[in-house]
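Kindly review both lines to help learners:
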Amino acid sequence: MESEAGSAGSAKKTTDNETGRKETTCRLDDNDIEVLREKFPFLKQLSTNYIKGLTPSELLNMEKASMKRGEQERFKDAEDRLTTNRIDLGIATAKVMAGVDDRWAKLHNGRFLAGAGCSASKLWLTAREVIGVNGYPAISTYDMAAVGLAGYITPRGWLEAHNPSSSKMSIRLFNVNNITSNRQLGRTGLYEYDEPEDYSDLGEFQLALRAMRAAISFIMPWNHSVAALEGFLLNSRYCRDDIGNLEKQAQLLTNFCDFVTRENASRWRNVEPFINAGEMRSFWNAFFLARPQSQLTKVKKPDQKTYTRPQGKTTGKANFIDICFHWNRGQCNRAAGACTSKLGTQLRHVCDQKMDRDNPTKRCEGEHQRCVFHK
């Protein structure tokens, strides 16, 4: 009798538990579950039937666990996350479906994929295989006004910029003063444009270089050849050590830019990588030494006073160094040429490694980061 009573009690208890669970189970329809999935992304990984079988307390516990994992992920070391994401690139591949794209009203979803993490040279060479030699049909409707450069590019500039193999590409075509250059019908039946004017000062040249880089980024986001040229000129302070005491610096730099763009056009035709910022120094040396201006005396650096270590307590301030300290630690996200101090002084992205213990003003000033090169 006792055994039967115990069995009956146990059965009754089990039935009561099941009844209680049924009473507390979330009675959700499909629309409610879709709303919950939008509010709580972790539910997207669970099936609809499984979610319907959960109680409110179980849902809350799962949400708390998900939030805790999210907090742990946010506090996880940034380098570990980057490394993990890099490893996952070969696993989490994106499937691009066929569609329509007219570069204007209908934009394909493939335009909005995440940026490629491979080398810029690989992007360049892959584009060469896909696009061919002559580039794209030229248009001039890019939103240059959005980046503050509306009206800086001539019609001929747009034509040449769309063709990576063009040997007629010139930074002179990005001069706002050449917008009104005349054209006339030549003997071949094609329009011939007047020869564009040179730049009168360095500031005008710098603005044209920025306009050329912006135009290329709109036309060919995978093409970083102009960004490499601009990066070299910014890091070398527009080759100030070589041409700082010369007249017509803008004209000399214009000729160098045209020399680089023609070389890159030749490399595109020959299916070779573009000239990167590291190679640019050797090209500049070859270009400049072939000019008669290279025989003139180089700009003399101001004599640096011998630094003497102060004895005892001093109230003097340390000498200011116009080099970005955060960039040398890998912590500066600003572009070269756009980095400034708190007081607005422009800071250079060059190495700040001390080269002389007795003279703290003497730094490496190489085109590399201290945290990478001097370990």
Summary: The longest helix spans residues 2-24. DSSP finds 14 helices and two strands in the chain. Strands lie at 183-185, 191-193.
